[in-house]
């Protein structure tokens, strides 16, 4: 009588286990050692890919991928661009950002998970590679330096690698079984690979060629009665060919002699997309029709029942990716035509400029174990082929069996990959992933067949192999040491290490060596296994250093345009500086396009960080506590930061050493010499490069970090700041340069019976007349050489407020306010005695007759941000001068340029623009005619005096000491005068005059506080002029309402 067990209301079995728990417990108990081995290996692979995943700074390309993924998360902004490869990466990363937030770790999380899946998916390859072969392949992919590194790197290649595995799995298993699920796996993995990156077309071409040739060979050999397996190969060829057909439009363009990449994505591309899609649909129908004509060649009914569904699903999903879920229809053209077209076009560019042996070179440095397995598999492939092709063996093959399917497929995949990527123009280190994958699979398959002939089931054999592998590894590391090189402590230590490794290796290899000498069976093969284990240990050493020790070092060859460790250091420094600022400070960090990648990623959602144009920087930059500037624009920004900032130079992006490009037959000479051998071993084991250090790496892009001088000690607390612009003692403190000028006279109210208020500008006209502008009284006064007042013009008028102005001639031709001023700064007389005045805040120039009558005005107020909309629009003009040939040159201070006019106000030339380069200005104030028609310009906020030729060409500059012109105070506006053999400029806030030679040499300085009288404030010299007849320097002291006339000095070494 049977017993019936029932489940109670709570779902509990009579033995006390719940239903679900019982089922899970039963499943766990059913797991074999092999299952646990695979689970353990997968967890190890996951751990190796996750540990320290966010430690390394994002590289150039990584930051592009990470940021554009974030744009989708932030505002669902994505527009496919073939330059950025396929859309799959951006969409899956955006999903992870939504789930876990955006960071360096989450940016690389999906590649790490996919890299782990690349190992785990080999579980389903046990029926293809054999149980040992699949496990060996999984171990090799777990420790592969290329796969490990690029599983921790946000690029598309690891996605293509996983899809290639699944693609191959679907193809082989469909041919073996005929189940349609494998056909769907083939199509879906092919889809994801193609929308990830265009190099998947190389994989597709290899797989398609294998299927097509395999089907053709099978059908031809059987003369019209093909095996079922051959028809299934035809199925895979048909499916791949039909699905990919619309992508192949660029090849059609090449065949008709046109460029593969359309110039734009207009109507031409639309027509090409439609033609491609219609062609694909036509192929679906054509293959179905031809099935009835020649069934052997056109696959099985499975294909034709599923092909329309596969085609529709494939292209619906592909277009959804390319169009950002159909929100950006331009992705149809850029994806279907542009993706492959752009990629083909780039092969002619040959980015990287690598030699044909680039991939073998990388393989010898990183993937030597798969290479060794590949070499060992050649004789195994030959013997396997001979065994399977024997007549007796062929007669026993079933209709479904294709004995050469797996080895033939893997061999074609390996050879095709090396050939395809070598022929392709663009060779990059991340593409090694696609070469390692088939090499590992082929080598694992062959070694699995070989291992089946060895007696590795005994514990003694396993122990012998492990010990032998360790022994070989000891010898390898011993080869990297140079014993007996010297007698110092370091040399003795290295000798002892070498000796220990050699003796240790001999001891570990002793059991196998003894067995081999005694002729014991299998010991020779066990030595081969031991050598393989040793290479595995060495591979783990290389992978460990690449992924966890030198992960941000250009000493490694698998990096390219790689982020440096300095990036993270700078980000930490910025955080520290900002923590020292008051809350709500505003913009705290500025960065330019040269450092955008990777900095744009790190500043993606920080409103206190702004991008600026480093090509034409403005003085507004000086408000930011921290400025980042690429080395290429450092000369542009240096004048703006040299005074108030401490600067340190950092590495942004670097590239590996590439001396191997020069390799030729002559390079092999002396290869076995001791020193040469040591160099190669250092490069191989430790990535040491003779004569190169990371601190002085030649292949690097630099950037500068400028920090406000008062904030620099927060991050650089040393007494001497680590600047690239070394601070030098202020030359103004050098007492040897102090000049003791004689005071000729003081022109003030007591002398000239004119109550000057705030004299700003001064010039010397014909017959020694002094022309003085008074900014507070809005008057221009003309004095005789002896200080007597000759005449005055002006009065206050702000033409923006008409009620403040007078009409000087009533119903006459003059406009309201003509002849009046709003803080005039500069004034100059021509040879005829006509007076030209820079009417600063009325933004115009006025001309007066020699006796002070108004004649003409030109110019108009114009917004300082829009100088080019009106060529004679002015903003705050200050300096003005008359050239020898009569032209008038005005410093359009607010627009950071000079304007040359005729005496009648006709614009003749515009000189310069805003910026820090030659003939660019930041707050130009004074203009002085020099010899040969040159002009000297005080370029205030750039901290220099520029020399411009009469044809508007920059001739040079004189940099002023850091302590000069150091503020934006409204009256800190320096003027310049000519002295014999040099120049004299005013330093308003420091109450001094400074003398320079024409070559820029600092000749001396005069402290004007020496002429400060009782009850007066320190002098503020603004305007300056030199009277050659009386040999005096006339200075406008704006702070004390006076003019100072000083005797010309005898300068120490005036340059002629």
From TrEMBL:
NHL repeats lie at residues 817-851, 874-904. Residues 85-222 form the Glycosyltransferase RgtA/B/C/D-like domain. Gene3D superfamilies: TolB, C-terminal domain. InterPro entries: 6-blade_b-propeller_TolB-like, CHP03663, NHL_repeat, RgtA/B/C-like. It comes from the Bacteria. Keywords: Membrane, Repeat, Transmembrane, Transmembrane helix. The chain crosses the membrane at residues 36-54, 84-102, 109-126, 132-151, 158-176, 200-220, 232-257, 269-293, 314-344, 356-382, 402-424, 430-448, 460-478, 498-517, 526-547. Residues 1-22 are annotated as: Disordered. It holds the Pfam family NHL. This is TIGR03663 family protein. It comes from Caldilineaceae bacterium SB0662_bin_9. The lineage of its organism: Bacteria, Bacillati, Chloroflexota, Caldilineae, Caldilineales.
